[in-house]
Amino acid sequence: MARLLISGAELVVRLAWWEKAVGRHGTVRVPVTAVRRVAVEPDWWRALRGRRRRGLWIPDTLCLGIREHAGGRDFVAIRPRSPVVCVELRAAAAPFGLLAVTVAHPQAATERLRRQLPDIDPADWRQAIPPPPDSA
Predict the structure, then answer these.
(1) Which of 4-8, 23-27, 45-49 shows the lowest mean pLDDT across its residues?
(2) Total number of domains in the chain
(3) Which of 8, 15, 86, 90 makes a 20 to 30 Å CA pair with 118?
(4) Do the domain assignments include residue 123?
């Protein structure tokens, strides 16, 4: 199971070896200054935005990899039927808009991250995906 932790000036999503292999992605690192908001999403499927791009998607079993949508890309490591920690990121400072990760104790992980990142928005809700730009 993936883990969220702060290492120096980075927020790290540490994946198990098999998650790295099937998700076709290594450890994810983003600067802590890119973190906008941290919240728990009780309904795991609401953390999935856009369409799958790269990784492994087994319905009702595992969602692991990169998802793409009009607002950019998200990294997900989700086990269905479990709450998900959603880390919303500032677009200009990180390669992803959202990190959605199933962890062992989501509420405790969220509270720990909020204590370690005091300059983030304390709200418990997430931003909607921005609409696609007009092509007119």
Answers:
(1) 23-27
(2) 1
(3) 15
(4) no
Q: Judge whether 79 lies within some domain.
A: yes
**pLDDT tens digit sequence for 57-90:** 888 899 999 999 988 999 999 999 999 999 999 8
Structural domain harbouring 41: 3-116
133 CB burial (10 A radius; 0-12, 13-18, 19+): exposed
**For 93-102, what is each residue's pLDDT tens digit?**
789 999 999 9
Query: What does the block give as tokens for 64?
Result: 């692991």
Please tell me the distance from the alpha carbon of residue 120 to that of residue 116, in angstroms, as a whole number. Answer: 10
Nearest alpha carbon to residue 76 among 132, 22, 121, 9: 22
Strand partners, 68: 51, 73
Phi-psi region of 56 (alpha: psi -120 to 50; beta: other; left: phi over 0): beta
Count CB-CB contacts under 10 A for residue 28. Answer: 22
pLDDT of residue 120: 86
132 in a structural domain: no
What global pTM score does this model have? 0.88
